[in-house]
Specification:
It contains 13 helices and 37 strands. By secondary structure, it is an alpha+beta fold. The strands form six sheets. Strands 7, 8, 9, 10, 12, 13, 15, 16, 20 and 21 form a ten-stranded antiparallel beta sheet that branches. Strands 29-28-27-24-23-22-31-30 form an eight-stranded parallel beta sheet. Strands 6, 11, 14, 17, 18 and 19 form a six-stranded antiparallel beta sheet that branches. A hairpin with a 4-residue loop joins strand 1 (16-18) and strand 2. Helix 8 (455-471) packs parallel to helix 9 (501-519) and helix 10 runs parallel beside helix 11. Bound molecules: alpha-D-galactopyranose.
Length: 742
């Protein structure tokens, strides 16, 4: 207690307000309360009389003059639920009497496992605050980092754990942050899936106990995504309070959503503590990932619009060309031949496809798997990153030159972290893979995982990629990762330090991506992992787009895209129109339907265009041209999910509105209609009620008698009516609205 107060006196006491940016960060010295305001959000926590950092408020923005009294630690409820457990701490060490999820758990060299963190000092910045905590007796320091985004009110939280003692300590569990929500009844939303079936929005009542959402796979995973949203009471797509968050980590992660015995709700997330153990030698530090959190009082739709804006303006990387812009430009429309040719690539075939692609109006040509080593099937070649001389006798240059001469940029598929046992690399360096010596090495897709945590492996991967990019004019890498970990041993390290692989692998991955971008400032990268297995705010700091799923069926994609957009912006959501019937589920659909489904995100073409009829070519060309005209509204505008395709819905519809409300794009899809049940009237959202908008079709017709132009009020209140011919199976329509002079 005395120590804590000393810390308070030593601490920076200035309150810095940046009202102009709609952000303020203050410390009330008298009440010992920190307050962060941004967007429509206020977050407050303080130092209680015991010296613990206690959460106080997270919700809608309060008035500047509103103040909080010093927090009072919760009382002991009964002997079984003591004050240390009941007090909502910002970052609780496992010690004293903590029974709820700890933020930090440490074992000391002498066997002590008791850790109680008290406030030491703080530093206020214009955009956030750093608060230092320390164990009540031992020199373990934890610095909590908070940054608040002025526009969206999204908070970034993380922790640095430092051992200033003379003996090593082992960190067994380290969260980035713990969030506390006001006691209430909540619906938990999260995203689950499987290969080719990612992005299912899963909703359930938050009952007593702990709900764990996690990956133990060494990477983000298809099965669950590190995002949550908790909605209160009657919240829906448009109304009510929602607290949401996303963890920026592409290794094993865990988010624990807990409703405890007193109905207090906490969300704790960070490194997955399963099989975790990070040794900190004297003087060493461990940085946790960042856990972002936000608040909206406009339902799940409002929450996702904040996430999209935040990702576009604060997370996604820039190239040299976009550095000065507030957000990266919309993605180039790409062609990728994977579904057309698989690994059967060669110079003549790719050149022929490039000619066809250019004629469609495609901006970028991407060659997928199969161009390197002895890569004719997925049994061989990974690790040998030289151009296959039979397929490309003159190297990649002739193809790249051809692509450039057709006015497109060139992209290439790589899978840098993997090796096939049938490769020169593995024959030379069998010790480079994750393994426990003497134990089997489990193969998945006939491949093993290179241990990127090893400095020599990291240098090899950086080295071959840098060489590839230096020797060839490559604008874009599709960076794939086609299996999860097994036998995650790191036998170069002492036995008790091998688990550091869970941290160091991912850190090295980020370091390689950052270094490549630094050395090649125009390079763009897609994060792919057999589809959507590595999508999170960590990898998105270094990658410009993601491949959401290997499932390109246009109907399946509608619900995947719906789920995806709860957490991630359509800008990064690559979507290809491919061949029909679809290879996965044998569904036949029209090219128009396939194109419009893909146009909800960042469009690509993945069909065998060599076989397209003139009519198909003309349809795709027309729709790519129409897409280019409105692309920035679709991928960077405010998204309204008007009708969800989930739960067997016959219909679905989305709408996006650009930032100055001068343009809007509407997509409408039919799964199957029944007689007498036509497409519902679409009441649009987010327009300026007083402005007049002219409507024009991208595809389809409105009901006869519909106005060619009307006010925003008309479109939002009266709504948009589809033509009565808009019926049948797998039908799609799209319209643009442009503001016009009155
Ligand atoms: C993964 C990707 C596909 C394709 C193949 C190539 O499955 O998700 O798009 O690149 O690898 O082997």
């Amino acid at each position: 207690m005395v120590k804590a107060l000393c810390g308070i006196i030593l601490a920076t006491m200035t309150a810095i307000s940046a009202a102009a940016q709609s952000r303020s960060v203050t410390f009330d010295q008298g009440q010992q309360v920190f307050r962060l305001d941004g967007g429509n959000m206020t977050y407050a926590f303080g130092v209680n009389a015991r010296g613990e950092l206690e959460q106080m408020y997270w919700g809608g923005r309060l008035a500047a003059g509103d103040t909080f009294s010093r927090p009072v630690a919760e009382r002991e409820w009964v002997s079984f639920d003591d004050s240390y457990t009941n007090t909502p701490q910002e970052y609780a060490g496992w010690g004293a009497g903590l029974f709820v999820e700890p933020a930090l758990k440490i074992t000391f060299a002498d066997g002590n496992r008791d850790l109680v963190l008290h406030y030491e000092s703080h530093t206020i910045r214009t955009d956030g605050v750093e608060v230092v905590l320390k164990d009540i007796e031992r020199p373990v320091y934890v610095t909590l980092h908070y940054t608040v985004d002025a526009a969206t009110g999204i908070l970034a939280r993380s922790a640095t754990i430092e051992n200033r003692g003379n003996e090593p300590v082992t960190v067994e569990q380290a969260a980035a942050a713990a969030w506390r929500l006001p006691p209430a009844h909540y619906m938990l939303n999260y995203l689950t899936g499987r290969w080719a079936g990612e992005w299912n929005l899963t909703q359930e009542t938050l009952d007593a106990g702990a709900r764990v959402i996690e990956s133990r796979r060494g990477s983000t995973g298809h099965q669950a995504n590190p995002w949550f949203a908790l909605q209160q009471g009657n919240t829906d797509e448009d109304h009510g309070e929602v607290w949401f968050g996303a963890l920026a980590w592409s290794g094993s992660w865990r988010i624990t959503v807990e409703r405890d015995q007193l109905d207090a709700v906490r969300v704790t997330g960070g490194f997955n503590p399963f099989d975790f153990g990070y040794v900190l030698h004297p003087g060493e530090k461990l940085e946790t990932p960042v856990f972002y959190g936000g608040y909206s009082n406009q339902g799940l739709g409002g929450a996702s619009r904040l996430m999209h804006k935040f990702e576009l303006t604060r997370i996604l990387p820039h190239t040299a060309a976009t550095e000065q812009l507030p957000m990266p430009k919309p993605r180039p429309v790409i062609y990728n031949s994977w579904e057309a040719t698989e690994m059967n690539v060669n110079e003549a075939g790719q050149m022929a496809l490039a000619e066809k692609a250019a004629a469609l109006g495609v901006d970028r040509f991407v060659m997928d798997d199969g161009w390197f080593g002895q890569r004719n099937t997925d049994h061989a070649g990974l690790g040998d990153w030289y151009v296959n001389p039979e397929k490309f006798p003159h190297g990649l240059k002739p193809l790249i030159d051809k692509v450039h001469s057709l006015g497109m940029s060139f992209g290439l598929w790589v899978e840098p972290e993997m090796v096939n046992p049938d490769s020169d690399l593995y024959r030379k360096h069998p010790d480079w893979v994750l393994n426990f010596p003497g134990r089997p090495r489990t193969e998945q897709r006939n491949q093993l995982v290179l241990n990127l945590a090893r400095p020599d492996v990291r240098d090899y991967v950086l080295g071959f990629l840098d060489k590839l990019l230096t020797e060839n004019d490559i604008a874009f890498l599709k960076w794939d990762y086609n299996r999860n970990w097994s036998e995650p041993g790191w036998d170069q390290m002492p036995a008790n330090e091998q688990k550091a692989v869970y941290v160091d692998f991912t850190r090295n991955l980020y370091a390689i991506l950052a270094e490549l971008r630094q050395r090649h400032p125009n390079l763009e990268i897609e994060s792919c992992s057999g589809g959507g297995g590595r999508v999170d705010l960590g990898i998105l700091r270094y990658t410009d787009e993601v491949w959401p799923s290997d499932n390109t069926d246009p109907f399946d994609r509608l619900s995947q895209q719906d789920g995806f957009t709860y957490a991630y912006t359509p800008q990064i959501m690559m979507a290809w129109a491919t061949d029909s019937p679809h290879w996965l589920n044998n569904r036949s659909t029209s090219l128009t339907y396939r194109m419009l489904s893909a146009m909800q995100g960042s469009l690509g073409i993945g069909a065998n265009i060599a076989k397209w009829s003139d009519e198909e070519t003309a349809t795709a060309k027309r729709l790519i041209a129409a897409y280019h005209q409105v692309q920035s509204t679709i991928v960077q505008g405010d998204l309204y999910r008007l009708i969800s395709p989930r739960n067997g819905s016959e219909f679905s519809a989305t709408q996006t509105v650009n930032s100055d409300k001068s343009q809007s794009v509407v997509f409408a899809f039919i799964h199957s209609t029944q007689q007498g049940r036509g497409f519902p009237i679409l009441k649009l959202k987010g327009l300026d009620p007083a402005r007049r908008y002219a409507v024009s079709p991208i595809e389809g017709k409105l009901r006869s008698g519909s106005p060619a132009a009307a006010s925003g009020a008309w479109w939002m209140n009266h709504g948009m009516e589809m033509d009565e011919d808009f019926r049948g199976d797998f039908k799609a329509a799209a319209f643009r609205l442009d503001a016009v002079q009155q």
